[in-house]
Amino acid sequence: MDSYDPDDELQPPVIEDGVSPHISHNPEGRNQHIHCPPKNDKLIQQILTQYHRDGITDRKKISRLLKAEHGVTMSEATVAHRRQQFGLLGSAQSTHSLAGSIKRQLVLDQLAQDPLHRRGPRLVREAIMADTGHLLTREYVTNEMRQHEPDGFAQREPSKKKVSRQPLVSLGPHHQWSGDGHDKLSKIGFPIWAIRDQWSGKWLGMWVVPNNRLKTSIAYLYLSLVYEIGGMPLQTTTDCGSETTEVYGFATALSVHNITIERGWLRVRVQWGDNVKVFWEAGEEIYNDMDPQQYDLVQWLWPRLIQQELDKLKNRLNTHTVQFDRNKILPSGVSPNVAMALHKDYHVEDCLQSVDRDIVKNLMAEIGGEDLIRFVDTEYSAHAQSIFDDLGFIGLTFQNVWQIFSAMLPLM
User: How does strand 353-354 pair with strand 231-232?
Assistant: First the structure.
């Protein structure tokens, strides 16, 4: 039986000062709080919609996040009014309002992306929210999955074996970054490298690269993240591979105990990586890697697709609320994004060390620039993009990648 989910409850109407919410004494929406934007503010609509897609629906948490991340003062009651105004429905309302065929298709679309049946109802529900903005009840998603994918529940039964884990300790966000390569897709030619924040567990960057063992490529990715964030951590932990020696020149530490990110790789492989290999193998009768023309096209299509899906995966992992663990020293019971944004609630400091972004940009250029992580040259990429656009494909997915490959190949 599913556990109680507070999001599944209909929220009661908000009543302030004994006034019915259906009677407006301020029809023009002029908020009396100086720092609270008016009700037609487009930026607030975008922010609240993104919170909704990230699975953040609690009005109290949203009010605090608005203040912490955007400097916006908005009461919990006003948050509730704005969500209702923008059509951001709770799970019970949303499930009830959608036609049966539509909400069933939302579930089936996610199941089609998981041929190995690795994702449970909670992850499927989160993926639907992230991709479409529709929040369905966990009960509905579970029932649909039991009907269309009954064997998956038996496959996902947790093992009785428990892995002994060492508690992690960190001073706060950006105290320590953990970087490592993931080689499970190297066999098909698309290795991955990533960096994760130890304190929050947030995935800061995930990249598909031609070679995750080339030290200059890894150094470029590290610097690109420093440039994007505008700072670097107090220390960076990587494995002891030769590819990390140049990162060591910019950061501080090499370690065989690169625990934070190595723990995360299992989740990446089970939820995502193993399925990628299934979709790749679907093209075995189509693709000949000994043909240079076919090889080049695959080198343009597949890294683009994998990076696109890695970006989605990173967002899902960072918005996923991890289970509360009373024995865990670092944050639990919240998503990595929320932990990072509300880190002051844990009485810790943001340890990010500011850097001159112009200097970082120059360093990136000096070691080789973006060419270090390209699979094909810019001329080929522009030509392929032109053909892709002319064919009128709406998007690139694991389900249609080999169809697009077959359509583009004669035109290359």
Answer: antiparallel
Q: pLDDT per residue over 278-336, tens digit each? A: 889 999 899 999 999 999 999 999 999 999 999 998 998 999 888 887 777 778 889 99
Average pLDDT value for residue range 221-230: 93
Return d(Cα 389, Cα 260) in angstroms, integer: 40
Write the DSSP symbol of residue 201.
-
User: Using CA atoms, how far apart are residues 320 and 127, in angstroms rounded to an integer?
Assistant: 10
Antiparallel, parallel or unpaired: β 192-197 and 203-208: antiparallel
pLDDT at res. 246: 55
125 contacts 136 by C-beta, under 8 angstroms: yes
Task: Single out the residue of 94, 75, 67, 82 nearest to residue 7, CA to CA.
Answer: 94
Residue whose C-alpha is closest to residue 236's, from 251, 250, 224: 251
pLDDT at 148: 83
* Helix ranges (DSSP H) in 345-399: 357-366, 378-390
Give the single-character DSSP code of 270.
Answer: I
Distance between CA atoms of residues 181 and 236, nearest Å: 14
Q: Is the pLDDT of residue 244 over 80?
A: no
**C-alpha dihedral over 22, 25, 27, 29, to 10 degrees?**
-100
Q: Among residues 317, 345, 315, 355, which one has the least CA distance to residue 68?
A: 345
Residue 368 has pLDDT above 50, yes or no: yes
DSSP reduced 3-state for 222: helix
Give me the DSSP letters along 343-359. GGGGT----PEE--HHH
The CA distance from 307 to 296, in Å, is 17
